[in-house]
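Lab channel / #folding
Pinned by the channel admin:
"Please post every new chain as: sequence first, then the structure tokens as a reply. Keep commentary short and put observations after the output so the thread stays searchable."

First post following the new format, from NK:
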Amino acid sequence: MSISEEMYLHYHGLIVPKETHSYESLEFAQGFKFEDDDVLAVTYPKSGTIWMQEILPLVLNGGDLTPIHTIPNWERVPWLEEKQLARVVDKLASPRALVSHFPYNLMPPSFCTSKAKVIYVMRNPKDIMVSSYYFHQMAGFLEDPGTFDEFMDKFLEGKGQRSHMHKRRHARKSIFASSITIVVGSVTGQPMSASFAVMFGKWTDHMKSWRNSELGDRIMYITYEEMAQDLPAALRRISDFLGCNLTEEVIQKVAEHCSFKSMQNNNMSNFSLIPKVYMDHDKSPFLRKGNAGDWKNHFSSEQLTRFTSVISKELEGESFSLPWSLD
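Reply from TO:
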């Protein structure tokens, strides 16, 4: 069995990590019953998911800080497709908030027939790739990303093959299980050929699926960059979209507690509760920088040209425009 087969599940042409997903959790997601007042934040990985897990409870509860200070983010706003949802779904108060990395075509039937609202958060794909690269370095349940150049190839392809020195880890209980028994696997490097793929496929495929979803007034599009530049303004948009009509005082309160610095210091949000074997913050903090444009510190001119060429070609003929330049 290859490292990828040990670490990932294949699901409708995508790969997802076994540590947080199972075929049972994916089936549970397909059978999940959406209610009309549910709110779903959808992202491609590393596009602001954790930020939305902080924002949504505060907006939906009028700025009440209790949930974000007492409940881990993966329980207060669980992923639709992950194991944790089945454990906590009965504890979620209405209106329920969830997050998902699913492309639109994998959403369950009940979502399509409900009136549940969706906030789709987009981010500059160059920054997504940089953030994902560091995440693969620190996450013990993901494959080593190799060099930055290697990882760029895989990000652009959405899948691929490479031969590398891989980190082996024995099976463990889920990261987010309420009772964690850690069996630390030996970490041995040995040359082997293994499939390496990016979680949830190509960014372009994911983004296009939601931009072409035709959900009308059920969906709101917002960018990570918009939130980073003026969080209070972004919160007003979110509040209005969800019909929460927060006061300016509450907007400012929520913005303060959803700042990057505040989230870095919140143990319910910064993943410091997760054992080091799963997330090694010494290699890279989970909440690393939280700004826009960090790609400029990583891309060579050749890499930028290659990246821009591939993404631009894959978006040819689309009726929507991107909110940022790819150059």
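NK: The first strand starts at residue 8 and ends at 11.
TO: also worth noting, Confidence is low (pLDDT under 50) at residues 160-195.
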